Amino acid sequence: MKRHVHTFKTLKQNILGLALLATLVVLSGCSTTPPPKETYDNICSIFQHDPEWREAAQLSQTRWGTPPYVLMAMVHQESRFKPDAQPDRPYALGFIPLFRSSSAYGYSQAQDGTWDDYKKATNRWSQSRSDIEDALDFMGWYNYQSHKRLRISRKDTYKLYLAYHEGQGGYARRTYLKKPWLQKVAKKVANRSRMYRRQYARCS
């Protein structure tokens, strides 16, 4: 009887050990450390803060063709590099929480449906919107779809951002023409992309 109890304890310890190891492996594969705010205007400083960000951006470029400086400019606009970014929750009467206006979440602000489409298309089911590598891969994938469907250059940050915000169908219908504020935002993202491009040429 004692031998069985000892065997059970040993088995339990082995299972717990394997579970802990699996957890550590998962966590080690996730890059979620956002850069400090003072580095936002310098892509080299961002990549120096966490080299995994640079590796993630370069890997996305290898797979989908969008340069790191374009991807990082888009991430800055969408989430300010916050892994858990999401739209503000409105309140009724100042204290009753209501539903958020969108399911957008994470670094890339990908919505639930589009994120599911990405996972199905790439067969990468464990991806997380709060992991920078997964978020940059998603953005690269989406820009690649815009390139194929709409013939947008993967270096044209202005048009890529409009398609990213409006959806490829909305961009094709030119819905952005009725949104001067969005065109201003897209120009701001394009300007940041140009700044990042000049910096990236030196830090790479």
Overview of the molecule:
- With 204 residues, this protein is mostly helical.
- It folds into two domains: 1-30; 35-203, Orthogonal Bundle (Lysozyme).
- 64% of the residues lie in helices and 2% in strands.
- Strands 1-2 form a two-stranded antiparallel ribbon.
- Helix 3 runs parallel beside helix 6 (132-150).
- The radius of gyration is 21 Å and the shape is globular.
Quick tags:
single chain; 204 residues; mainly alpha; Lysozyme; two-stranded antiparallel ribbon; 2 strands; globular
Instruction: Supply the CATH architecture of the largest domain.
Output: Orthogonal Bundle
Helix vs. strand class: mainly alpha
Would you tell me the overall average pLDDT?
Answer: 84
Radius of gyration: 21 Å
Shape from CA axes? Answer: globular
Q: Give start-end ranges of low-pLDDT stretches.
A: 4-12, 14-29
Largest sheet: 2 strands, antiparallel
Chart the SSEs and their pairings.
Elements lengths: L1 H27 L14 H7 L1 H14 L3 H12 L11 E2 L3 E2 L14 H11 L9 H19 L6 H16 L7 H24 L1
Antiparallel strand pairs: 1-2
